[in-house]
Amino acid sequence: MAGVKGSKTAKPRAAATAPKKAAEPVTLGAPELTCYPQWPNPPELVPGRSERVWMDLTSQRYAYRCIPLSMANASGWEIRLPFTLEVGWNGGDSLDAIRMRANQPHFEHLVSSHFGHGVVTFHTGWLFRTSPGWALWTRGPPNSIKDGIVALDGLVETDWLPFSFTMNWRFTRPGIVRFEAGEPFCFIHLVPHALLDDVQPRIGDLEKEPKLKAAHDAWSASRADFGDRLKAMENDAVAEKWQRTYVQGRGGVEGEHPMFHLSKRRLKAPK
Question: The pTM is what?
């Protein structure tokens, strides 16, 4: 019987316990991604495309010179809508405040108004499993703009879940939006979930890293000089159009080459 404050009953001595072992650091191997269809002919699951319509429409397709932009577009897998869908929201919070129609009968198993409050819910048609410690970041296609509605991001622990997740979009205002057949409604990419909490961001002092500072200053000066020459329409700058330091993996500290560098990403299709 536990002692009560004010009584003369002696408190029992705590049992001796072995000292706790320090948590061992998590070691992650190369991730695996297994995709289980939940029904025959689920929505198409394909590697992400680097192209975007708005990027195509920039002058001379200028947007594709930003390698981080196109790399992000292709760093995951798309789940594509198998039919054309129109969804309308009247601004209310109830489930029936959202109305939808599609050019395919019985589409409700794939898309519905499940949460209300202007949220449209898509069922992916897939159950995903990942290696221990790896999760899936679920979102809309990167660097894609859809007027009137926005994709909601989620981080799903697919290394242990035995069930699927939904992909949700929320209206930004009342109105009607249209999803075309073949348009991705969900984008997934792998995240080392088990390691993120162990990351300790460190504030550095660039003055104490002379080699890094020299490389940074050289890059800044080169970029500013090229910009000035381009504005002045100097022939060599106009002919060059843009600097290719990043795409070619050049300009590291003391001219060192990166251990790993990609300018294009080509993920594998599920098989």
Answer: 0.85
